[in-house]
Amino acid sequence: MSETHYTLKVAGIERELKKVRVAPGLVIASFVMLGDTELVERCADALLPKMPREELDLLVCLEAKGIPLTHALARRLSLDYVTVRKSVKSYMEDPLVVEVRSITTQAPQTLVLDGVDRRRLRGRRVGVVDDVVSTGGSLKAVEALLSQAEASVVCRVAVLLEEGGYHGEDLLYLEKLPVFPEGR
């Protein structure tokens, strides 16, 4: 580990993550799976045995960084998935909308579930997939949407759990990711 980077070891591979200041006094190691096929595939393989396969009907993820992982898991589980979007699109029918604040975004975010997906989710058992869980705010917001859609959350999975944030023992994850006091 250096002043500018953190060495992450996950799913049998290493990645150098750049440390980024996200708030006064708070520095995180920036984890981005997008475009890293080896990382996505290895993490999907490592998460798969932790998941309750027989209890799942669909997977749900947030746009955008969790999409490739969710796709890889869905292929392995022979399931489809739904993506919660970050804005209302003109093609959406009767969308459900909630707001959430994330430590990696400066302003509140909108999370949107298309009415078409809402109907697909009704009465279904779902697994919520994310790349990193920090405070759990995004998970709670997605679960609020899923509750309105009358879906049951069976499991929550992520590659990383950021230390000092979410304390849900219900999260299935591969590794913890430290946060760093500014200046260290």
From TrEMBL:
Gene3D superfamilies: 3.40.50.2020
InterPro entries reported in the protein's UniProt record: PRTase-like (IPR029057), PRTase_dom (IPR000836)
Entry keyword set: Glycosyltransferase, Transferase
Leader sequence residues: none
Entry's Gene Ontology molecular function annotations: glycosyltransferase activity
Domain Phosphoribosyltransferase: 55-166
CDD domains associated with the record: PRTases_typeI
PANTHER family, per database record: PHOSPHORIBOSYLTRANSFERASE, PHOSPHORIBOSYLTRANSFERASE-RELATED
Protein name stated in the entry: Phosphoribosyltransferase
UniProt source species: Aminomonas paucivorans DSM 12260
